[in-house]
Amino acid sequence: MLVKVKNRKLYLATFASVLGPMSFGFVLGYSSPAIPELTKIADSRLRLDDNQASWFGSIVTLGAAVGGLLGGWMVEKIGRKLSLMLCTLPFIFGFTIIIAAQNVWMFYVGRALTGLASGITSLVVPVYISEMAHERVRGTLGSCVQLMVVMGIMGAYLGGLFMDWRRLAVCCSIPPTLLMVFMCFMPETPRFLLSQGRRREAEEALRFLRRPDAPVEWECSRIEEARDEQGSNFQLSDLKDPGVYKPLLIGIMLMVFQQMSGINAIMFYAEDIFEQAHFQQSELASVIVGLIQVVFTAVAALIMDKAGRKVLLIISGVAMAISTTAFGVYFNLMSRLPEPHGDLAWMALASIVVFITGFALGWGPIPWLVMSEIFPVKVRGFASAVCVLTNWSMAFFVTKNFQDMMNLLTSAGTFWLFASMCTLNIIFTMAFIPETKGKTLEQTSPPREVKEMYARGIVNLFPHLSDPFSRTGYEHYYDGASSTGYLAWRIKTIQRSTARDRRSSYGASSEEASCEHGLGGPAARRESYFVPETVLSEEECKEAIALIKHSADEDTIKKKMKLTFDFRRNMVLDPQQSSNVLYVFPRFKDVKGLVEQDFVLMFGEDVSGKFLEKWTTTFKRKIIQQCKKLPPTSELEDLLLAADTPEDGTEVDDDIGWDSDLSSILLLLHLIPPSAMGRKRPGKVSASQAEKHLVVFKKTGTNIQEHLDGITTSTQPYLLAVGRRKKAVHQFFIILDKNAIACRSTSSLGAFDELFKAHYVFATIYNPMLCNMFTFIQTTVYNIDVGKMKESPRVAEIRARLLH
């Protein structure tokens, strides 16, 4: 990957900047060799007790938390380069105070200052690298941040083997000194320069970072265009934008999970852990751990832009979960044995090696890299500061309370707690982390204004794609108020949340299969079109129901069904009574036309007749034309052949296909893909699978009762077609649970019309596999609950195409 971006000056600038993370690593690693020495030092003024040693290790994180906030302000006000240069001062001053320490408080001040510098560095360097690096190598160069941190940690461990704590502090001050010198010769990031209106300097910086003949004008224009679309100034109101708050929440959770894996506790107290694990040479073991971390962080850097961020995070989380669980088992076994067992020592060593390896591959470098990639430019300083503050606050919590946790939960319980957090971070990664491999910074965080601009542009260029049922005409492509729409779905900025919302609507009360209707739909309470001339009393209603059951006169039955309409509506809308409707009113099953009559009473004759009136004249031909543009499949080709009848009206003679009208309806399942029940499980539903939930064919002579007896679960209504072949159906039934309702119409179009109306008559929710299709029929053909139904963007898009 590196050979694709050959300019050495880019790597030189990266090396200069990552001297900051190396300094940060020396700060983190310094406590591990220094604390054991300072707890045994002869000078009582400098000797640390257990509580003071805990503060010596953890006060760095408090300083870093403050440094993160300060760095967020500095990086926006004075720039990335100058922020890096200034952060070297507290590094150098802090180690100088430690070197000259005469009491414990000087240790605290020195550690706090180096922590402050570490916080600024941990924010500024990832931003600096991400803004200057080419997208092809941004993952590799961004991983160098963590690589240099662990190299600094290992350097501190290694130095602790040969030097006392004062000389080690002198060595720790060397990297920040080099950082200040080298950064004098490095450029500011082009993105910051452009945000300050310094385009000429930005172009010079790009020529330095790319190559002299690189198309820097084009890259500057691309950065400026993205900045203009996102807006240049951050305001708190921007936090309402999903394009801002969703990446921010992801960044915060990445930092929480990174620290709750227990890494800083393990690294700060590495020697103590090995001493408890009964290793005789715990100092050397810590150096080995540091070396492992360096090696595998380097491996992660090399494969980052090939494997991707998400895969490495998952692998890392699994390794850490297994190793911390094993470490807990080790401490649990040790606590039960009367004396240490030599063989178990290798279990501890293997556990910590696997943990460090896993952490170095993913959860070490990637949170800092992703943090620098996912935020829009205008909020990068603020959002990064919040993430750094979160990281170091959690680091303080873990490191300060690690010993207390070991005492309260026992050593085994503490590591099992870390294991549970590692398991949660695997789930979080799979569900929420976006893949940013190979994308430009502008591509990783498309702003709301960009999506809205494209949506508006589509309908302006192609007026026939405008949705006549929406407020602006382009909400089906992108609705900025709710961050929904076809474009949002395509770029997957809201796919997970919409799938989660959709999944939450499949409750047990709805047979675990429904689609979210908003304020409308078949099961919604509504004012009826019908106003009865007389209102039946309770006794009169019972008499009418009894007469309906036993009368042989269809006219009488229909008249009494009208009079009991309100009673029946209240019944179907009552969850406790709705399942008994066909028991109380069994004549639905043998008197044809009762479903049609109730639907007319609800909506009126005009609405009731819209499907039969519009389908063949308005929709059928257009649906066939749109489906011919879809990627061909065998099922789609068969339906098109059956639906697209010749101009003389004769149908294609085959024994397996449906007639033209029903085939055109089934084409909707290809044009508007079936709803998927959840984000991934049970997964996407094919159109051919959904078809089986809409219509089932049985040959003439089939015992209908046998078919009903074979139904094992309650179902939404579907059509049962009975005939010699699919094109020669002589009877349709609406199957609702284990009941067969005879359709009045013998045509497929009329039977489908009655099937749709049955949902409203019996207040039955749409089958989730057919939800998009029925929603389209409801709003676009019947014009029921327009503006109230919660539609998928695809439904609105297809409506716009067909109505123009």
> Unreliable stretches, pLDDT < 50, 5 or more residues?
1-5, 492-514, 676-683
Structural class: mainly alpha
Helix content: 55-70%
Which sequence of strands runs across the widest sheet?
1-2-3-4
Mean pLDDT: 79
Largest sheet: 4 strands, mixed
How far apart, in Å, are the first and last alpha carbons?
49 Å
Helix count from the secondary structure assignment: 36
Beta-strand percentage range: under 5%
Rg of Cα set: 35 Å
List strands and helices in order, with pairings.
Blueprint: H1 8-38, H2 50-77, H3 80-99, H4 104-132, H5 138-162, H6 165-172, H7 174-183, H8 190-195, H9 199-209, H10 216-230, H11 242-260, H12 263-268, H13 270-276, H14 282-307, H15 309-336, H16 342-363, H17 366-374, H18 380-432, H19 441-444, H20 448-461, H21 486-490, H22 495-504, H23 538-550, H24 554-563, H25 565-572, H26 581-584, H27 594-603, H28 605-608, H29 610-627, H30 634-643, H31 660-671, H32 687-691, E1 695-699, H33 704-709, E2 718-723, E3 729-736, E4 739-742, H34 748-761, H35 771-781, H36 793-802
Parallel strand pairs: 1-2
Antiparallel strand pairs: 2-3, 3-4
